Amino acid sequence: MKKMLLSTLVCFTSFTLFAQVQKVKVLTYNIHHAENMKQVLDVQGIANVILATNPDLVALQEVDSVTGRTHQSDQLKELASITGMYTYFVKALDFDGGGYGTGILSRYPINSSTTLPLPSTKGNEPRAAGIVTVKLPGNDSTLCFVTTHLDAGKRATDRIAQANALATYFKETATPVIMAGDFNALPTAKEIGVLKEVFADATAQMGPTFPSDTPKIKIDYIMTAPKHKWTVVAARIIEETVASDHRPVLCELELK
């Protein structure tokens, strides 16, 4: 009888530990408004990357919404139609008759969403972070997912201010957070250091991501907070050289 009870306890404990762990696969991709390296607009090419990697959450940067440049196509809705995912568009600025910014694709229904404007010097391109919350399947855990695209200027002033705004916003959060995007900064940059005060860099061991045909610098990241709640199971750069001028970055994360 004691052996049976012990066996039952071991099984129950193992199940409990298993149930407390949730894996999430995340892709971040600067899609260059779906203009590929051959200067051809090709939303399907971006969709093919997403379908091939099968992520749960996707952070996209440089997304057009009904602009003249991309023939009034709603790029995020087109990608959602092909991939079957939920969407949230984050307009950073009005552009060419439509909007331009970042976007989120989610395999999970989006419970809430908000756009956080980021500080920007007058005359520089406005920047924003898109924030959604989702509930993980088979689990009561709520996850916060963030896409952003930091300033691309040679001076780091705006990027540092933007990094500070994001670090401050998420510093006290009890909700697990994944933040991904094109941060336009090298791993040794001050702005990355600011973010790493709050976030862990899940892509820390990765090489360069830009430009896609002959990558020389790493400027695309996936980060997590609180640091103790996450484990990086796998991380890699996708060797896609045509669909965009950036290479996509994929991470499989484990939420404790």
UniProtKB/TrEMBL annotation:
GO cellular component terms given for this protein: membrane
Domain of life: Bacteria
GO BP of this protein: GPI anchor biosynthetic process
Residues in the signal sequence: 1-19
GO molecular function: endonuclease activity; exonuclease activity
Keywords (A to Z) from UniProt: Endonuclease, Exonuclease, Hydrolase, Nuclease, Signal
Residues of the Endonuclease/exonuclease/phosphatase domain: 27-246
InterPro entries in the record: Endo/exonu/phosph_ase_sf (IPR036691), Endo/exonuclease/phosphatase (IPR005135), GPI-anchor_lipid_remodeler (IPR051916)
The protein's name in its UniProt record: Endonuclease/exonuclease/phosphatase family metal-dependent hydrolase
Organism of origin: Chitinophaga polysaccharea
